[in-house]
Amino acid sequence: MKRWGYLLLLWGQAALAACPPLLNYKVPGLMGGEINLCQYAEQPVLVVNTASHCGFTPQFTQLESLYKQYGPRGLVVIGFPSNDFFQELDQPSEIGAFCQANYGVTFPMAGKGHVRGGDAQPFFKALIAATDDAPVWNFHKYLILPGASKVVSISTRTKPDAPEVVDAFLPYLKPPAAPAQP
Fold first, then answer.
1. Is 54 a catalytic site residue?
2. Of 1, 87, 110, 129, which residue has the fewest beta carbons closer than 10 angstroms?
């Protein structure tokens, strides 16, 4: 019995070691719980700092569309609400209700926090260090390729479904499911 315990301990340590440092974070979820970023280590992850009352807020539509279209093949989209630019609602329940009612958001949303400066969440500090590019406005995007092998910083003005964004993650997705046979 001790052998099984030892093997499970070793397996658990190996699993933790497999998590790239860039994704070795657990962040609070917008509506409770937490998001363990390690679970996405082998998938492309599109991270976006969001705000409910920004001129770029309609990008939620494209983000949700990408998530629905490519999520089954492995793309993960995660929103990180922030009031760093003074355009986010106060309460998590308000943010969640706004995103759902106006844009039908179903992709994971982290709890509201800072995305730049000394108060930035540790995960965003790591993204900034990896790209040498901090968000200068809402809807700045970071595309993390599988294994955190590369991080691409994407400006606010670039739409999430722009060809350069889609072309960057497409090679890392699972092949499309075969159509059902009649």
1. yes
2. 1
- Prediction pTM value: 0.89
- In the chain, where do the E strands start and end? 26-28, 34-36, 45-50, 76-81, 141-144, 151-154
Residue pLDDT, tens place only, 14-52? 444 589 999 999 999 999 999 999 999 999 999 999 999
Q: Is the pLDDT of residue 5 over 70?
A: no
What is the spatial distance between Cα 165 and Cα 172, in angstroms, rounded to a whole number?
12
Q: What is the average per-residue pLDDT within 11-15? A: 48
Q: Is-contact 82 49, C-beta < 8 A? A: yes
Token reading at 62: 């494209």
By the 8 A CB rule, do 112 and 82 touch?
yes
Which of 73, 41, 17 lies closest to 147 in space, CA to CA?
A: 41
Question: 139's torsion region: left (phi>0), alpha (psi -120 to 50) or beta?
Answer: left
**Phi, psi angle pair for 25, to nearest 5°:** -140, 150
Contacts of 34 (CB under 8 A, 6+ apart): 26, 27, 28
